[in-house]
Task: structure prediction
Amino acid sequence: MISHPSRHCTVELQALPSRIGQVRRIVSAHLRYWHLDTLIDRASLGVTELLTNVHQHAQPDKSCTVELQLLLDRLTVSVHDRDPRLPVAEDMVAIAPLATEGRGLAMVAAMSESWGARPDGEQGKVVWFTLPTANGPVTAPKRIRRPADLDQPVRRFTVVEPLFDGDRPSVHTPARSAVLG
Result:
């Protein structure tokens, strides 16, 4: 049970790789303090992806603010930066199966209840995601920012052919996710 109807935390930083780990620890500590331990993994993953995007893409600088806001049954994590360009979720079909980048916003969409991006006046933009505080399962994202010309559904998984070991076909084991929910 949440005894305070609203809780808030703000961290200002330069989105550098060494600082991203520190912000993850701050997020984890606040969620433990708020008794929301079940959200730590998903919130840490989401904030890592958003800060990595700031580090890789934001112009003119890497200054940003991470904000956690807990309102009753919803945690909102947002990252404000000074680059006015809104992010675009990559078309998962167009990404090579072994590519090491381009999946960050798709991961945020998959593990959150909702997410989005909005201009922040002349101050840049805000990219955010929400997580329900209840212990129930995470529902499908309700709002995904994609280019308007992308009317096809996004394929989320790559088909992999089974491997054979000599004459014996491989045993198919169901995949398991490390992300709770």
About this structure: The two ends are 20 Å apart (CA to CA). The longest strand covers residues 6-14. Residues 135-142, 148-160 have pLDDT under 50 and may be disordered.
